[in-house]
Amino acid sequence: MNKNGKVYGSKEFNNDCKLKERIEENGYNTYASFSWKNNGKQMFVALNGKGGTRKGQRTRRKNTTAHFLPMVVDTQIKDLFY
Question: Which family does it belong to (predicted)?
Fold first, then answer.
């Protein structure tokens, strides 16, 4: 996520790639930019209704669009992808 709150893919690891993971009380995870804030407020990774990303400036920790459900991956299935 860049300083404007836009989520993008990067070929190389940089400060925009650093995220803070938080496990919420409801069992979901949220991910906030480690490097950037908007007016002192954290910017979160979030998805809109069509599956696209929302700008970090429009997100808050309590928004359900910023909640991600962690999944346990079976080791046999994991081997197919790595």
Answer: Belongs to the heparin-binding growth factors family.
28-57 pLDDT tens trace? 999 999 998 888 889 999 988 888 888 888
- Single-letter amino acid, residue 10: S
- 3-class DSSP state for residue 19? strand
- Comparing CA positions, the residue from 35, 36, 61 lying closest to residue 46 is 61
Look up tokens 């407020």; give the residue: 41
* 29/55 Cα distance (integer angstroms): 18
User: What is the rounded end-to-end Cα distance, in angstroms, of the chain?
Assistant: 25
Residue 19 burial (C-beta neighbours within 10 Å; 0-12, 13-18, 19+): middle
Q: How far apart are CA 61 and CA 30, in angstroms?
A: 7
